[in-house]
Amino acid sequence: xxxxxCVIAEEIETTGPMPVxxxxxxxxxxxxxxxxxxRDPLGAAGDFITAPETSQMFGEMIGLWSAVVWEALGAPTPxxxxxxxxxxxxxxxxxxxxxxxxxxxxxxxxxxxxxxSPRLRARQFGALGGxxxxxxxxxxxxxxxxxxxxxxxxxxxxxxxxLIATEGGWAERCIDRHTGPNGGxxxxxxxxxxxxxxxxxxxxxxxxxxxxxxxxxxxxPTAQAIAxxxxxxxxxxxxxxxxxxxxxxxxxxxxxxxxxxxxxYADPLSDPGTADLTAHVDFGALxxxxxxxxxxxxxxxxQGRFLLSLGIAARAKRLMAAATAQQGHDMEAALKRLLAxxxxxxxxxxxxxxxxxxxxxxxxxx
Length: 366
Known about the structure:
The protein is of the alpha/beta class and 366 residues long. The protein has 2 domains: 3-33 and 161-219, no CATH class; 51-158 and 220-354, Rossmann fold, CATH 3.40.50. 37% of the residues lie in helices and 23% in strands. The chain is built from 14 helices and 16 strands. The strands form 3 sheets. Strands 2, 3, 4, 5, 10, 14, 15 and 16 form an 8-stranded mixed sheet that branches. Strands 1, 6, 7, 8 and 9 form a 5-stranded antiparallel sheet that branches. Strands 12-11-13 form a 3-stranded antiparallel sheet. A hairpin with a 2-residue loop joins strand 6 (161-166) and strand 7 (169-177). The protein starts with a helix and ends in a 12-residue tail after the last strand.
């Protein structure tokens, strides 16, 4: 067993079966053995590659978006430019380079990065040290006042509760010790769950009518709280937040919890702390919480549509004009990965939150 598996096993022995959200939180963020505390997960030598590492064009489009939005907000000087979960700092470095095309934008920006991993903080400082970044453990550390926030593949790594439909109502899906000789873990059904504000389609009287026993519904109170906090900040001061992640635009049931290790899918319960754990983002839930907190909500729309609207095709054409044959081939492959419906173009969604009086933001026009 991994050191973290021993920690989890001991907690289960002490308190009983562990809710999925607690398992996910420990697997990713345990202060000593958590996945993000012990390794650099990005790149060919890591476990996965995100859009900013796929092509510089992705970060450049985000930078241009941010600069135009800053101007639409009244060009506040100074303002907070923040990124949640900045990876290697690649996206923000590309964004700031592109943002220089808007006079005054970079000079007005005060860079803040929300990151808990010491290893990733070091990489981020290497890429962005010239902009004097201020690091925070969570969103609460960001200063008040005008702000623009970027969150690319941040929400998918926040813990999710899994509720499972039973003949007697919704129950918490939990994780227990495996009874086999390997001492592993297995899913189990826990106690009846306090379901809170479930969508009407998940009312208890829908079981076993329209909801079949065994149906799983995932909800992330952490993600919804962060969306509410971002929206509240946008309502109090000029601001906008851009959320890019994979997930569903409307209500959906089904299990999406997955693990990735070495660029391949893995058993999410196997060797906790050694694989990335994620779940699809419920953009509908985020949008409802943001609206309730006073923000204007744009989207979600597909990533492909968003990037095309911002002009990524024209940017690719300019880059390819000065590229070698191999570079051009690589750019075409990267563009396909970012835009194609069969790759990131539809699965990845884009949503923006903005101040209540905000007009339609770039990328969201019909």
